[in-house]
Structure prediction request, 236 residues.
Amino acid sequence: MAAFDGKVVIVTGATGNLGQVVARKFAAQGAKLVLVARDADSLKALADELKVESMSEAADLSDPASVDALVGRVEARFGQIDVLAHTVGGYAAGKPVHESDLDVLDKMISLNVKPIYVTAGRVAQSMVARGQGGKIVVVLAKAALKGQAKAAAYTASKAAAQRIVESMAFELRDLGINVNAVLPSIIDSPANRKDMPNADPAKWVTSDDVADLMLFLASDEAAKLNGASVEVYGRS
Prediction:
């Protein structure tokens, strides 16, 4: 029996470099998938490739009404949500704080904080109502742990997201819901190779590395982990 047979797993950012790998690994372990992303054509192609029971959904993950509607559709189709694997996030550098306006801060909060607060919160609400527990796994970043020059908005957003994960873990641990995070360093992706042409990608972590850790945290083997921020840095 595969580790996620019969489990319903929501994968956000499912058509991204990491999201696709996460979706494929859950599919290989028998999960029923809810694939969430913006591009309908890419979603359909991924769903067709995976050949498991799935549904493809678009939603504004920072809007409570949109996520409530998404959760309602999942409950109507599958009757449950067992796992949320949240891979959505973004990076934007900026100027030093004393030279900046609020645009980059607003952008980072919108990408890295609100979707976690809303989506994880709404999914947790469904899990609590069902009363059968669940797993919430969120991708954060090494940047959550320390500030960086010209990246205050980015690092602050990741730190805020980490506090949300930790707070939810305290709120939900007695209800059988585990909430944990993965903190990668630089993930080897086409975009990062393009942006950092002089770096050594061999020192970075791969999407497979991050996805494997997410599956572990979503599994029964990680039942005693709650509120953890598991670092996966490679050599970077």
